[in-house]
Amino acid sequence: MPSLQGVAVEDGELKMNIYERHPLIYTSINSEDNELKIDTCINFPVVEIVYNGDLLESFLKYTDDEKKLHELYGDCFTRKVLAGGQLFIIDFNSATQTQIDILKFYLFCIYNSVKYSIEIQFSNLFTLDLLPKLITLDGEKMNTHEKLTNWMNNLYRNKMVNIISYEELISISQLKHNISFVNSDLETFKEKQPGVSNFKEKLSLDEWVGGAINNNLMTWTRDFNLFQGLIINKYNEIEISEKIPVNVIKIPKVNSNNSNNKSYLKIIKPSTKFEFTLISNNIFSIKNLSAFPFIKNNDKSYEGYNHIQVECEKYEILLNMDNVKPTREFEQVIEEALNSMKPLKALQDVFNEYGHLFPQRIILGRSLKNVLQNFSTFDDVNDNDKILESLNNSNIPYLLTQKGRIIEKNDLHKWIQNMNNHLEIIEFDNIIPLYKILKVNQQEKIDDILKNNYRIIMTGITNLTDLNNNNNENYKRINFGLSLKSKDYEVFGSIISENNIKLEEVYVNFGLYDFNGFYAVIKKFEGTSIDITEFYVSWVIIGKPSQLSIFSPNNRELQVDYIKKSIKLKSNEFNYDTIDTSLTLNKGYTVFAHSNYSSISYEPNNIIKLVEWKEKSIDFQIESAYNIQPNVSSSNSGSDHESDSDHESDSDHEDNDCLVNEVDLRICILSTNCKSLKIDNTNERNCSLDLIGYILNEKNFNGNLSNKSDENEVSVNIQNNDSITSQSLDIQPEPNDKVPRNTKEIEDNLAHDDAQQNLLKLEKIAEIYYQGSQNALQNIQMELVDLQQRNVKFEQDNQNLAVQIKEFTEKENTLQTKITYLQNGNLALTDNLIEQSKQFSQLNQEKNSLQNQLTQSDANIQEFKNQLIKSQIDNKQIEEKNSKLERIAEIYYQSSQNELQNIQMELVDLQQKNFNLTMQNKKFLESENNLQIQIVYLQNVKQVLDNNITEQLRQIGQLNQEKNSLQLAYSEANIEELKFQQNQFKNQLEVLQTKLVNLQQQNFKLEQNYQDLRFNSTSQIREFAEKENTLQTLITCLQNEKQALAGNLTAQLKQNKLTNQQIRIQISQLEQEKINLQEILVQTEVYIQEIKSQQESLTEQKEQLENKLNLFQVNNEQIEQEKFRLHNMIKGLLWDQKLTNKLKAKSKKEVSQLKQKLFIEEQIKMQLTEALQIKEDKINELERRLINLDQKYIKKLQDKRKELSEIEKELVNKLISGENTKEFHKEKEAKQKEIAELQQELSRT
Q1: Residue 230's beta-bridge partner residues?
Q2: Are the beta carbons of 172 and 74 closer than 8 angstroms?
Q3: How many helices and strands (H and E) does the chain possess?
Q4: pLDDT surpasses 50 at 1142
Q5: How far is the C-alpha of 579 from the C-alpha of 573, rounded, in Å?
Q6: Beta-bridge partners for 392
Q7: Angle between helices 145-156 and 97-115 (to 10 degrees)
Q8: CA distance 592 to 692
């Protein structure tokens, strides 16, 4: 704290100098009392303040005792103070080495970016809240990047400083005995920093940061994109995604192998082409991609090639799931994909952008490899000497780096020793699917979608306003609005009113499934007088999302169990069947039922009704829709059934037993207690499940029959219901209507129970038997009355029979005419399609020719663009023109029939662009003149740098002479003066560095070299006495850089002139190509217009044929219905069977024709497969030739390197002997140029 009274006068000399040295770090501070765990202090000095002045008379004349002296004037007085800013690090010594390295690099980057305006890119994945905490002297927390940057800007740019260090402190007792404070030789002691009572070590920022500037997790993340996903594109190539899917919430663990570099040699044999791709991208642990969804695996064989791999591990980065969390953006796009109607496609698009794979273990180091054919195997080796021995024994002369540089086996040890300077990713391990980093609920949703189970794909309610109410049977087309990938799905549904009431008087079934929709077959029962157009059909699609691509998000939580079973139906009998289930049924579950005839001659017209259910099975009743009449009691239904049986003749009865139709019974069980479904095609509307299916409840549950071992119990699955009828309005027997078949069953049941139970059961059975008998008697009476009515109706039917037969004959003739017309139309359509195919083939040839011309034009444009970039000319408009040309070409080839007008508009725009191109050329000439002026300026700067460096060399020689003489003759005080001169020389060199930085900004290609020079120079000139040799080397490097810069500028000037000439030539060529392209497009436009007119005519013919085909199908279905009814009424008429046989024969003929077409298509497919196999063989042969060619180039490159090595040795000898080396330099440069050309050729292959 300041003293009560002053010590020196206020009008003394005050000197303020900018602090030029680096910040200072004090480690292990306040070791005695450190409750806050603040153990590191960083001082950022900005200004050095020195005060020289006389002492106050009052201070000099003070005569009281020492205690009073210290109370008034304090304990010490300072000669010099440092002003700037202070940062304190909390608990720095307890942090992990990874956190320490990241924080050091972070502070180093912020300091250099603010003070020297050097832009240093670093990853923003690691925020300050993951690192040891930073606070200022005032207690303000620096917990964000913005806060720390603003604090640094205020410090170095706005000069908002505080006193951070008191230098050269003098005791008040000593000071009082001296007259003047100026130039005194009083003894001083250590400096004092606010907030620091003691410390262990004082370091500069460079010393403190050390090797962390290059080797830290933040640098690796920036250089290698560590925490981004790996994308496997459609060409089976692995890329690193540009999007970052994760945020780091905890610093990953990094294991270092600095003490013992782990090296090993291994051989890998890929069996498939995709495994070869994984190995080439440093992925060795994945052998099967079945566990990784959203990746298309290429299983093509790739045997015979072995990968020889030498790896040297330096660092191991372990990224556990608790280290990262998904970004908000990634979670949002995943959620949008999950809520899509096509979730699989949407998820595929997301992972194609963010990545499919995510490595949790990354190895950094260096690696060498080679690919050899038919190579003998050997065991893995993990010792450097044994690696070299194995290479010698295997006759492997060289290996390749990841960048294609050749490393001979004799240079392997040297290469391993230098691995610290060139780290790279050598292995990705512990790889998981990228979606596994998401939260658990999103993972479960994705896993649920990926399962190959039956689910509710879509629901809907469709009105029937467009139907004809006068028809008893209607066909309603229902479209999805989206296109499915497969027709393998099932539809369940019912007819409902606007008030959600199920309509029992109308029967509905579904068929004719395709990719875009299906048909609902709607039949009104006889005697029904309702307006069908006022009702709706409610439908549910059941299928597998992985096959259909559509999966509505509305009902995904419902689990579905799908059962398909073929059963045989007997005519004139109630048909019952038991469906066994794999899951245990519970109350509240919902059951959908649907049936289809296996034979194509019949349409689905059966009503499926649930009778009862047990824990593992469901009983259904199946009845034809024609046997159901509305608004009649169950007894009437039974009477009708009996009446129909009585009217059958004995001879026909045997035939009826043989008439068996096979149907496919399809059952869907929703294992949920949900009461309704969300409807997809209407907003905010639900449909109750009992409107579509049956709810399992206590009323239809049969608990007594759940035990299958009790074979003697009464079953409701009655195949012959002569003695029992249903009391349900829907002809559906209830479980309580069980009637013993005979007294023997009663006796058997009584025999198995004790006396009391037998008595109770006997009473119950007697009561049931009595009720059943009364019901049967009543039914018989009702049937007798109904039989008389049926006799009258039968006579009327006989009279109408002749009329129906005549109508049927007329329909058959009409059908035959339509079939003939349809066959002729098919032949005409086939001829038209063949002609159209030829025309399209010609169009494709012309398109390929135009594609080649456009490709050549694109290549010229791309070359022109690259030359403009090298000359630093703004060619943004030319690139836009180029991209638009490419877009025009792409749109033209993909949709030439629909986008012709857009092409014409783009051609007009192209003419405008031609004018813009001329203006751009003028701008280019102006830019070239500016570039000439800039080059002259750079040459002048170079000359100034030449003169400065020559002057500096002269001064260095003088300083060397002075130093040698001063070391022998002068004392330590004079050495301080020499250091002052050295500091002046250092300032001059810093000025030179500033000029080099300016020159570096003007020439972007030399930016990195000058940046390295700046950092190297800053660290090498700090102490001249210890680093004099390094300084001399630096000056030599500057001279080399100066010469290189002069050569580059001269070459650049020549290159710009040549580029200007080439650009002018290319512009003229591009204009000519543009004119040619316009002519071709005009010709193509005329040709496409002709094709378009032909296509329109073909489309009209196709629509006519489709309409006729639909009409034929409807007529065919009506004829089949008429045939089915006539078959039941007049089974004895043989001509009906002959007609059916004729129709079947015609159907078989058409089927055989279709099979013949299918066989031809299969042959074409086989030919294409063989052609594809031939191409693959050629590709494999080219790959083998490419490998052999690489080996030839590598061998040539080795020979050239040996020749270059011999030339270099001879050059060294000439230099030692003092001979002229100009010719050797030329020869050396020629060899280096040849080697560079060979390396470029090798990289192309």
Answers
A1: 240, 357
A2: yes
A3: 25, 33
A4: yes
A5: 19
A6: none
A7: 40
A8: 7
pLDDT of residue 1043: 64
Q: What is the dihedral of CA 606, 608, 609, 615, to 10 degrees?
A: 160
What backbone torsions phi and psi does residue 471 show, to the nearest 5 degrees?
-85, 140
Q: Is 143 exposed, middle or buried (0-12, 13-18, 19+ CB in 10 A)?
A: middle
145-151 own/partner pairs: CB under 8 Å, 24+ apart:
148/110, 149/110, 149/114, 151/85
Length, in residues, of the chain: 1245
Q: Name 190's Cβ contacts closer than 8 Å, sequence gap at least 6.
A: 169
The answer to whether 949 touches 1035, Cβ cutoff 8 Å, is: yes
The percentage of residues in the chain with a pLDDT greater than 70, rounded to a whole number, is 51
Q: What residues contact residue 177 under an 8 Å CB cut-off, 6+ apart? A: none
Encoded amino acid at 663, one letter:
V
Dihedral sign computed on CA atoms, order 770, 773, 779, 785: negative
The amino acid occupying position 858 is D
The phi and psi torsions of 697 (rounded to 5 degrees) equal -140, -175
Identity at 724, one-letter amino acid code: I
DSSP reduced 3-state for 31: coil
**Rg of the chain on CA atoms, in Å:** 47
Helix 217-224 × helix 97-115 angle, to 10°: 70
Query: 90 pairs with which residues across the strands?
Result: 38
- pLDDT confidence tier of residue 994, bands split at 50, 70 and 90: low
State residue 644's pLDDT score: 42
How deeply is 849 buried, as exposed, middle or buried, from its count of CB atoms within 10 A (0-12, 13-18, 19+)?
exposed
The separation between CA 436 and the C-alpha centre of its own chain, rounded to angstroms, equals: 13
Q: Is the pLDDT of residue 769 over 90?
A: no
Encode pLDDT of 776-825 as tens digits. 666 666 666 666 666 666 666 666 666 666 666 666 666 666 666 666 66
One-letter amino acid of 119: E
Does residue 197 register a pLDDT over 70?
A: yes
Residues 25 and 32: their CA atoms lie apart, in Å, by: 19
Q: Are 534 and 497 spatial neighbours (Cβ–Cβ below 8 Å)?
A: yes
Alpha carbons 458 and 677: distance in angstroms, whole number: 10
Phi, psi of 585 (to 5 degrees): -80, 150
Q: Which residues contact 656 (CB under 8 A, 6 or more apart)?
A: 570, 571, 572, 648
Task: Give the distance between the most distant pair of CA atoms in the chain.
Answer: 151
Q: Given the DSSP bridges, would you call strands 517-524 and 473-479 parallel, antiparallel or unpaired?
A: antiparallel
797, 1129 Cβ separation under 8 angstroms: yes
Contacts of 611 (CB under 8 A, 6+ apart): 576, 619, 620, 621, 700, 716, 717, 732, 733, 735
For 407, which DSSP code? E
Q: Is the pLDDT of residue 370 over 90?
A: no
Question: With 0-12 CB in 10 A as exposed, 13-18 as middle and 19+ as buried, what is 755?
Answer: exposed
Cβ atoms of 963 and 979 closer than 8 Å: no
Res. 346 pLDDT band, cuts 50 70 90: very high
Report the SS3 class of residue 943: helix
DSSP secondary structure string for all residues of 428-471 = EEEEEEGGGGS-HHHHHHHHHHHS---EEEEEEEEE-TTS-TT-
User: Is 298 within 8 Å of 273 (Cβ atoms)?
Assistant: yes
Q: SS3 of 952, please?
A: helix
**Smallest Cα–Cα separation from 413: which of 395, 381, 390, 388?**
388
Structure tokens at 751: 């025999």
- Rounded distance, CA 1229 to CA 1234, Å? 9
